[in-house]
Write a structure and sequence with these properties.
Transposase_17; two-stranded antiparallel sheet; transposase activity; Transposase_17_sf
């Protein structure tokens, strides 16, 4: 087996997902320090729930993650934790987020497996987001 595979007690897996979500009303609020703090929070949450963040970029109006998730934990549960906890922490630390938005994140998100494209292509795409 290659090092691309992970395992837990029951399974060996390689489940990588490209996840995108936006602030409510697609407001451009993920800037001026909010973006930096959001990265720290997401890395902390990932460590707690044993999800590996392979690549991450925070745009002013959306978040890109490339993650490796245990299929028994599930991508929906991971996104729910990322969005729920980050909303709570960011709204506590940046009060202006409370006044502009009823909730920080939309209820929806995009997720796609990355089996169809080489990982380096997906990583490059995420890294180049700020340049476009």
């Amino acid at each position: 087996m290659t090092s691309d595979f992970k395992s837990n007690k029951n399974i060996v897996y390689s489940c990588k997902y490209h996840i995108i979500w936006c602030p409510k009303y697609r407001r451009r609020v993920l800037k001026d320090g909010v973006d930096t703090r959001l990265k720290e929070i997401l890395l902390s949450i990932a460590k707690e729930i044993m999800v590996e963040i392979l690549e991450m970029e925070i745009m002013p109006d959306h978040v890109h993650l490339l993650v490796d998730i245990d299929p028994q934990f599930g991508v929906h549960k991971a996104v729910k934790r990322f969005k729920g906890a980050s909303s709570r922490y960011l709204r506590q630390e940046f009060p202006h987020l409370k006044s502009r938005l009823p909730t920080l994140w939309t209820n929806s998100y995009f997720v796609a497996t990355v089996g169809g494209a080489p990982l380096n292509v997906i990583k490059q795409y995420i890294q180049n987001q700020k340049e476009t």
